[in-house]
Design goal:
about 475 residues, mainly alpha, Rossmann fold, Arc Repressor Mutant, subunit A, 3-stranded parallel sheet, 3-stranded antiparallel sheet, tRNA binding, ATP-binding, nucleotide-binding, Glutamate--tRNA ligase, Glu-tRNA-ligase_bac/mito
Length: about 475
């Protein structure tokens, strides 16, 4: 079999939304898992709505998701001459024709059809006209769509989908100003780029019936179609702004790790047995079109958080720190300095199993990031009453000559609590308040080991 080639072809009229991100991921996984190519095309023929900023946002979103593409990014607008060339080839082959009907004439046809209860699909009087009768006037080039029979789309997700040809009009492929329509441009680009599999949202399913005509008219091989259901909100309705964050880059700013996002998006409408949490390498090996369901998937933030939490726990510590840096930059937060990074890296073993997002990780690792004097919240202040401060003062003296390992610190603190007639929890509360400024923290031993002897003693002294 020839090499698999997939593509992602967004319009640069806004950010890369979550549905687009999943479509790109499915194309990427399908190609990468089979040693194929994943291509990127920007469909920028709508010059009024397309912006360089939107293109940049799409590229940033894909890059954050870790979806690398092969070769240069293709601009559809730059290929307009090639699209026009194909329209004229169809004209010469008799599979397309010049139509001189004006907008007023087309609207008059439709009004009459509505009044008579007929189909409003425009039937051009120029379809079979003798070229000798053509006026010297502006014209569009229209496809000669079959008038009878059925167009069948063999779809890997939707099954066999049939369209009555009496429902398909002679679509315009080249406008009167010589610019191509979207329907023509997509097919020419996919053919020229060698695309073997078109994996896209099922809102394009009707387009497939019309686009297949162009393939047939040119004698080109029709790609494998796979139209995937759209993503709905938790309420079961099509995603819109009311459902909250939609742009892929917003999910980075919210602090979700890219690997977790890939895992969650892959499972959004596709399944592999009962597997919920998997690596990107596993997803590449497992992903197939047969695993995609026909029903719309629902965006579930609880499941997203759970999946991302699993990936935070699975990630290599250094990689986690690198992605944390990128999160801080993307969200406009202050970067970590060398001391903070060193402490966070040392403490990652005690933090990452309990964090679901990067803000979560930073909050749990706050003790490693703050500098003296440690700012304390209300509960921490309450934990540092005069009696507790006196106990911490005695503890500070005991720690001055202690060996700084968990094996040594654990019995030391346990014995100290016993001497004071305290349960360990009663001793731990003021230590947490002094070291972290919070009462909910990682274990006191982990905090002491991460920030070190000198910093631990200094913070305890500050609190007394």
């Amino acid at each position: 079999m020839s090499q698999i080639v997939t593509r992602f072809a967004p319009s640069p009229t806004g950010y890369l939304h979550i549905g687009g991100g999943r479509t790109a991921l499915f194309n990427w996984l399908y190609a990468r898992g089979r040693g194929g190519k994943f291509l990127l095309r920007i469909e920028d023929t709508d010059r009024e709505r397309s912006t360089p900023e939107a293109t940049e946002a799409i590229l940033k979103g894909l890059t954050w998701l870790g979806l690398d593409w092969d070769g240069d990014v293709v601009s559809q607008f730059d290929r307009k001459d090639r699209h026009a060339e194909v329209a004229h080839q169809m004209l010469e082959a008799g599979t397309a024709y010049r139509c001189f009907s004006t907008q007023e004439e087309i609207e008059a046809f439709r009004e009459a059809a509505r009044a008579e209860g007929r189909s409003t699909l425009f039937q051009s009087p120029w379809r079979d006209a003798d070229p000798a009768s053509h006026p010297d006037a502006p014209f569009v080039i229209r496809m000669k769509a079959p008038r009878e029979g059925t167009t069948v789309i063999a779809d890997e997700v939707q099954g066999e989908v049939r369209f009555g040809n009496d429902q398909l009009d002679d679509m315009v492929v080249l406008r009167s100003d010589g610019t191509p329509t979207y329907m023509l441009a997509v097919v020419v680009d996919d053919h020229d780029m060698g695309v073997t599999h078109v994996i896209r949202g099922d809102d394009h399913l009707n387009n497939a019936a019309r686009q297949q005509m162009v393939y047939d008219a040119m004698g080109w091989t029709v790609p494998v179609w796979a139209h995937i259901p759209l993503i709905h909100g938790a309420d079961g309705k099509k995603l819109s702004k009311r459902h909250g964050a939609l742009g892929v880059e917003e999910y980075q700013v919210m602090g979700y790790p890219a690997a977790g996002m890939r895992n969650y998006l892959a499972r959004l409408g596709w399944s592999h047995g009962d597997d919920e949490i998997f690596t990107t390498e596993q997803a590449k090996a497992w992903f197939d079109l047969g695993g995609i369901g026909r029903a719309p998937a629902r965006l579930d933030f609880k499941k997203l958080e759970h999946t991302c939490g699993q990936h935070v726990a699975m990630m290599d510590d250094a990689d986690l720190l690198t992605e944390l840096d990128a999160f801080l930059a993307a969200s406009g937060k202050e970067a970590l300095d060398g001391v903070q990074k060193d402490r966070l890296l040392r403490g990652m073993y005690a933090l990452k199993d309990r964090a679901k997002t990067f803000p979560d990780l930073l909050e749990k690792g706050r003790f490693a990031l703050v500098s003296r004097p440690v700012e304390r919240d209300e509960k921490a202040e309450a934990a540092l009453d005069p009696v507790s401060r006196g106990i911490l003062k005695d503890l500070t003296e005991r720690l001055a000559d202690a060996s700084w390992s968990k094996d040594d610190l654990e019995p030391l603190l346990t014995d100290f609590a016993g001497e004071k007639g305290l349960g360990f929890g009663k001793l731990a509360a003021p230590i947490r308040a002094a070291l972290a400024g919070r009462t909910a923290t990682p274990s006191v031993y982990d905090m002491m080991l991460v920030i070190g002897r000198d910093e631990t003693i200094a913070r305890l002294e500050d609190a007394t």
